[in-house]
Write a structure and sequence with these properties.
5 strands; 10 helices; disordered C terminus; alpha/beta; 200 residues; single chain
Length: 200
């Protein structure tokens, strides 16, 4: 899946799916190297104030769990949930029937089926997402099986996982409001960005 090619070919909108790991990166003080995630959250809040457009989505399973655990995140005020809900569309999934990680992939499939480009904002490795995709694909009745090759997984995958550093490069390349927003929030943290294209 190539974001550049997909956008160039038919203009489908990119939607950011906020994974559980993004909330940990942005709000937990015991996680290392989270400055990019914190900056992205500030960027998204200010972008919403300027454009009124929600470009993020997450599952109700993840947001409910984060709200429940918020009190164990030192220094994070309760109104943070309100800020998250202001920038994020919450897709309802039954809490008792759905675990955290598959819920992200189900939301991605719904977006993909509705002609969006689902980008999962996550610090989880690509290898783990590939494993999860196979399991979820089998459960969804897609053309996945446990013995399929890496290439075949990538050929059939319906989402793109992206860490915070690559997400910042995505904003720089595709968000028409980028220059306006960084005037409000400042430049992103200095980190080495990949020089390769944003592809899966």
């Amino acid at each position: 899946m190539s974001i550049e090619n997909d956008i160039a070919s038919d203009g489908r909108p990119i939607r950011l799916i906020l994974d559980r790991s993004f909330f940990h990166d942005a709000f937990r003080t015991d996680y290392p190297n989270t400055e990019s995630a914190k900056w992205i959250f500030s960027y998204l809040v200010n972008r919403r104030a300027v454009s009124r457009q929600k470009i993020c989505i997450t599952s109700s399973v993840i947001i409910n769990n984060f709200a429940f655990r918020l009190k164990s995140f030192p220094g994070v005020p309760p109104q943070t949930i309100l800020a998250i809900l202001a920038i994020t569309e919450v897709y309802p999934l039954p809490q008792e029937d759905m675990q955290f990680d598959p819920s992200t992939l189900y939301v991605a499939k719904i977006l993909y089926d509705n002609q969006g480009i689902p980008v999962i904002l996550s610090s989880v490795s690509m290898e783990k997402w590939r494993t999860r995709a196979v399991k979820a694909g089998i459960e969804m009745g897609l053309e996945f099986d446990e013995d399929m090759s890496v290439k075949r997984v990538y050929d059939n995958i319906w989402f793109l996982p992206m860490n915070s550093v690559l997400c910042i490069s995505l904003f720089k390349k595709f968000d028409p409001l980028y220059s306006q927003i960084i005037n409000m929030v400042g430049d992103p943290p200095e980190q080495e960005l990949s020089s390769s294209p944003i592809t899966l």
